[in-house]
Amino acid sequence: MKRVFLAACAAAVASVTVVGCTTAAAGPVSEADAARVDAAQADTAATERAVTDAEQVLVDKARELLIEDCMAAEGFRYRPVPVAGVEERQGSGYVLDDVGWAREHGYGTELQDRLVAILQDDTNNAYANALPKAERLRYSKALDGDASADMLTAELPMGGAIQTPADSCVAHAKGELYGDFAAWFQAEKVAANLVGLYADDLVADERFETVLAAWSECMRERGHDYPDPPAIREDLPRLTDGLSDEKALDVEQELAVAEAICATRETSLVSTTRDLESEYRGRLWQYRDDVITYQRLQHAAVEQAREILAAEPAPSN
Fold first, then answer.
1. Is residue 232 part of a domain?
2. Which of helix, strand or coil describes residue 154?
3. Is residue 285 part of a domain?
4. Which N-terminal stretch is annotated as signal sequence (predicted)?
5. Are 44 and 282 in contact (CB under 8 A)?
6. pTM to 2 decimals?
7. Rounded to a whole number, what is the largest CA-CA distance in the chain?
8. 274 class by beta-carbon count within 10 Å (0-12 exposed, 13-18 middle, 19+ buried)
9. Among candidates 251, 249, 255, which has minimal Cα distance to 109?
10. Which helix (H) or strand (E) holds 155?
């Protein structure tokens, strides 16, 4: 299942107001700006497709192996942390667009709970906590870096900046995968935060309002009165409170299937939203280079991950 639209602000979209996601007021578009938009759209079309969830799983697994090697070189034990699989990565966007997945998993609560339990059982924490204080500090700096040392800074589209240590095993692993950690850090932070520049305009777009109203009417006809998909997520804790896991999953599945059917078969919410997002992102020509770099480095990481994983010895029986 592909995640669709405003994942970074999905919860806030429930009120049709994207809290913390503002955009400049719309105004007349000059010929120069229109030309830049056309160029941006042409360049975007020329870039490679977005990586799939399955490909990102490969990258994440390879990253963990690289971290393990780096920590060993620093004199520490590190066990690769299990990464979310394809199924666990689905269902977190604005609206469900896979009826089959919804029928099986509802909104994926069980999948997420399972992943959280696995991560909570991370043996690396127990190992680090058992180290002497000085070594525990060195372990932390080796793994995640030292905030008092060299830092990389990425400028964010909506203003402000975010920093990360330039030297750590995490940074080293990403550098091995993406080829240039500094370039990746800047491009990824831009690409992942563009939504705030157009979220308000998109949800106020008449085309979006029309198809969302049709989706809401479809849900109402099926016995579920919700104005938009995020409102269902907000209501789930109340609906499943006190229920057994089996009964809670039944509730999730019924709602999730209805949401996905209304979004993909009864209305064009998924396709319209995807088209609108592409349109609005295409207007942000000033970030074209960052987006192209982001996609290029993503695909480079997938190929690198395949090589790393292929060279990994098969587990012994």
1. yes
2. strand
3. yes
4. 1-26
5. yes
6. 0.82
7. 67
8. middle
9. 249
10. strand 151-155
pLDDT at 44: 45
Residue 130 located in a structural domain: yes
Which residues partner with 35 through β-bridges?
Answer: none
Contact (CB, 8 A) for 167 and 150: yes
> What is the tens place of the pLDDT at every residue in 218-277?
999 999 999 999 999 999 999 999 999 999 999 999 999 999 999 999 999 999 999 999
What span, in angstroms and rounded, lies between the C-alpha atoms of 230 and 96?
Answer: 10
**300 alpha-carbon distance from chain centroid:** 18
DSSP state of 161: E
As a whole number of angstroms, the distance between CA 270 and CA 281 comes to 16
CA–CA distances in Å: residue 187 to residues 39, 53, 143, 191, 290 = 19, 19, 23, 6, 5
* Beta carbons of 143 and 127 less than 8 angstroms apart: no
**DSSP 8-state code for residue 230:** H
Report DSSP state, residue 26.
P
Q: For CA atoms 94, 55, 302, 305, give the dihedral sign.
A: positive
| Residue range(s) defining the domain that contains residue 265 | 7-21+35-310
How many C-beta atoms surround the C-beta of residue 114 within 10 A?
A: 15
In-domain check, residue 2: no
Domain count for the chain: 1
Let me know if 28 is exposed, middle or buried by CB neighbors in 10 A (0-12, 13-18, 19+). Answer: exposed
22, 24, 25, 28 alpha-carbon torsion, rounded to 10°: -150
| Residue 254 amino acid letter | E
